[in-house]
Design a protein that fits this description.
There is one protein chain. By secondary structure, the chain is mainly alpha-helical. The protein contains four helices and no strands. The chain is globular. It comes from Dorea formicigenerans. Pfam families: HTH_3 (PF01381). InterPro entries: Cro/C1-type_HTH (IPR001387), Lambda_DNA-bd_dom_sf (IPR010982). One of its GO terms (molecular function) is DNA binding.
């Protein structure tokens, strides 16, 4: 799987889970210490450097494992 495809897949899963939990982008952003626009960029797959630390923060905020993302 190419990096761009992987970013899109992770982003769609982040958005799916956020919506399942009825969480807003600003809420998730606050939990991670980033801006809501950063969460939007993660969700649409436009951030190139999705590091392990970011995935851990997203998984914690969304109550899923890093592997699920």
């Amino acid at each position: 799987m190419k990096d761009k495809e992987l970013r899109k897949l992770i982003g769609s899963r982040v958005k799916q889970r956020r919506l399942e939990l009825n969480l807003t982008q600003p809420y998730v952003a606050e939990k991670m210490g980033v801006t809501a626009s950063t969460i939007l960029r993660y969700e649409n797959g436009s951030i190139d450097n999705t590091k392990k630390m970011v995935l851990e923060g997203l998984s914690e905020a969304l109550h899923v494992s890093v592997e699920w993302l």
